[in-house]
TrEMBL record:
Residues 31-91, 236-296 form the HTH tetR-type domain. Keywords: DNA-binding, Transcription, Transcription regulation. It comes from the Bacteria. InterPro entries: Homeodomain-like_sf, HTH-type_TetR-like_transc_reg, HTH_TetR. This is TetR/AcrR family transcriptional regulator. Residues 1-30 are annotated as: Disordered. Pfam families: TetR_N (PF00440). PANTHER family: HTH-TYPE TRANSCRIPTIONAL REGULATOR BETI, HTH-TYPE TRANSCRIPTIONAL REGULATOR RUTR. Residues 8-24 have a biased composition (Pro residues). Residues 54-73, 259-278 bind DNA. It comes from Pseudonocardia humida.
Length: 422
């Protein structure tokens, strides 16, 4: 019996190209105005987020009246959906380029596709990033956004699964893992500008995709059904009520909007204790970020407690344990990473912390490879994306993809990375 895989359809995507000039407008003035509104709104969304952008900001940037804006769009939500839909449509075109690659695809073929994907992200990545973390809050929009994200993950997963000797049963999980890895690769090297060689990042991303193609499917137990070996468990650090409360506060508000009074109320400390321990809300933000990143480092240290060689099930236990850590710290770690982009006051401290995490992971993985094949910093950054961004999409954005399926895909790919002798 032939397996049939279905996925919910997404609505027809609106066109972004300017409409033909109406009769009486031979010079195309209306088309140019519409394009100017779209370009200005895109820039404002990236700078201020969706919620922070007002119609008056858009009209001021375009040099038009409010009535002029409403001649073309009902509200800013319409523009946001238009921009997002166009980006997702082009992304589906990039995914479909797998259809033109030979079977089997060579390393050069996969590298070429990775470069195409990163070029797409250079055009649309900043907006897609805002699409996930600064977007309309209504249920209709969120539901539509999830459908589009799932459509892309599913379509990529189907194309990759068609090339696997033993196809995975969860193409949506396969597609999401690869997309997460590529998005983090792009963000880390092109936006955050971590000191990782771009060519190394491309080669590493391509190598991990090839591991996803050649990996043996893994059947793993997760969560309470997993009997993790004691040696693989990360040590539990004592809770810090102040940092725990601060973490929740910073997730709810931008650090610039947090006052000492907010900290005192949320964390249960008086002003004297706060001043003695931290001194400022910015110092508290850095202390909270450092503590969360340390727990991520503890999870990475789990590799030191796994046997040599380790099995796919051992790797799955490590992935599952890392998901547990991200359930506690993941949203804040993600926001902390956003705050340390070049040019921000947190850049020097934050970038060194993120590189420390990437290096710690990359060196551990590379030391276990049968034939060390990629730069450890690039490897660490790419695998960080495979796991942490997969967590963000599945947990924070609540994409309907099974946790066990994600762990199985990740564990199989990492195990193939360790054992391949190419």
């Amino acid at each position: 019996m032939t397996e049939t895989t279905t996925h919910p359809p997404i609505p027809r995507l609106p066109e972004l190209a300017p409409e033909p000039p109406p009769a009486g407008d031979p010079a195309g003035r209306a088309a140019r105005t519409r394009t100017a509104i779209i370009d200005a709104t895109r820039a404002l969304f990236l700078e201020r987020g969706y919620a922070g952008t007002r119609i008056s900001d858009i009209t001021a940037a375009c040099g038009i009246s409010r009535a002029g804006f409403y001649n073309y769009f009902k509200d800013k939500r319409d523009v946001f959906i238009l921009l997002g839909s166009a980006a997702f449509r082009e992304l589906l075109d990039v995914v479909a380029r797998w259809d033109s690659l030979p079977t089997p695809a060579t390393s050069a073929d996969v590298i070429g596709w990775v470069r195409d994907y990163l070029a797409f992200m250079d055009r649309h990545g900043a907006f897609l990033h805002a699409f996930s973390w600064s977007a309309p809050e209504d249920d209709e929009f969120r539901s539509g956004a999830r459908r589009m994200q799932m459509r892309v993950a599913f379509q990529l997963g189907l194309r990759l699964r068609a090339r696997q000797p033993r196809p995975t049963s969860a193409p949506e999980a396969l597609g999401l893992v690869v997309l997460a890895m590529l998005d983090r690769t792009w963000y880390g090297s092109r936006v955050t500008r971590l000191p990782v060689d771009d060519a190394d990042m491309v080669r590493t991303a391509a190598a991990l995709i090839r591991c996803c193609l050649t990996a043996e499917p893994a059947a793993v137990a997760v969560g309470p059904d997993r009997a993790r070996p004691a040696a693989g468990a990360a040590p539990q650090r004592p809770a810090d009520p102040v940092l725990d409360a601060a973490r929740r506060l910073f997730v709810q508000r931008d650090v610039a909007d947090v006052a000492v009074a907010d900290v005192v109320a949320a964390c249960g400390v008086d002003r004297a204790e706060f001043a003695a321990r931290f001194g400022s809300t910015k110092a508290l933000f850095l202390a909270t970020g450092s503590a969360s990143l340390q727990e991520v480092l503890d999870a990475i240290d789990g590799w030191d407690r796994l046997p040599r060689p380790c099995s796919t099930d051992d790797v799955a236990g490590w992935v599952d344990a890392w998901f547990d850590t991200l359930d506690r710290h993941g949203v804040f770690v993600y926001l902390f990473a956003l705050a340390v982009r070049p040019g921000t006051e947190f850049a020097a401290h934050g970038l060194s912390s993120l590189m420390k995490v990437a290096w710690a992971l990359g060196t551990r993985l590379r030391s276990r490879q049968a034939v060390p094949s990629v730069a450890p910093d690039a490897l660490g950054l790419a695998v960080l994306g495979m796991v942490s961004d997969t967590w963000a999409h599945s947990r924070a954005e609540r994409l309907p993809i099974g946790h066990a399926d994600l762990v199985a895909v990740l564990a199989a790919a990492l195990q193939d990375l360790l054992t391949t002798r190419e």
